[in-house]
Amino acid sequence: MKCNVSRREVLKRMGMLGGAALLQPVMSVAETSGKMILQRSIPATGEKMPAVGLGSWQQFDVGTNAAERTPLKAVLQEMEKLGGKMIDSSPMYGRSEQVIGDLSTELKLNDRFFMATKVWTTGKQEGITQMNDSLRKMGRKKMDLMQVHNLQDWQTHLKTLKDWKEEGKIRYIGVTHYTDSAHARLEQIVKTAGIDFVQFNYSIRSRNAEKSLLSAAKDSGVAVIVNEPFDQGALFRAVKGKQLPDWAKEYDISSWAQYFLKYLLSNQAVTCIIPGTSDVKHLTDNLGAGLGKLPDENGRKKMLEWLERV
């Protein structure tokens, strides 16, 4: 994946960290009278999973000192407390796998999460070595989901993934990418390769996946993970200084993050979205997108039209 700019960095650049009124009050998951985060089924098995998860690119690529790790530990604690489950990582993400494994094990929460990572190398044996390393780093004997990162040597790795799934080393297999230009290839794989998950970029302003990839995944019984849901922070920059429209309340939207995420969740082909964060408040805000009413077709149209006028 490309480098994501964190929401905190975006707001800082926009001079908005102190401007809470511009962002509208954020719905606290803890204040929603026990509502459960939206659950979606994994088509391959029917297993339910929370529809909002956590990405780890950049945010979890930190060292060993407490100052860097303590906020991330708080994010994992709060995520589990509020009902989140999916954590997505990759060997490409520096030290993220190790940090996730260390902190979740330290918190005695490792087995409470749905752990997903990727193979990102070329060659069969290189892939096997890397995946074994990922299992060790993330504190797992069995990985919930192993994906081929950015389709790198995907045909070679998919053979290994299928073998490992048969052997019980991994539960689900998939492929990923982060660019529109890869969508046609992903669609072909979704239709023919017998995978369980596909991960790709999709946002309210980057909707190439709506042309056919989302429907192909749904028709093929393949779960969808969405990356780049905030379009690398561009969505927050686009609404700089803007109030949420009054009608957003009709869909239980109380922040811009929820506006952007609920649009994606309103597509029934989407299984899980994985916004990355190292901030507990942002995590809570993101998980809030899985609460309450989702936009219907008229609501989706209204959301798009409003953004087009910004």
Automatic annotation (TrEMBL):
Entry-linked Gene3D superfamilies: NADP-dependent oxidoreductase domain (3.20.20.100)
Residue span, NADP-dependent oxidoreductase domain: 52-297
Taxonomy, superkingdom: Bacteria
Pfam families recorded: Aldo_ket_red
Protein name as annotated: Aldo/keto reductase
Species, as recorded: Dyadobacter sediminis
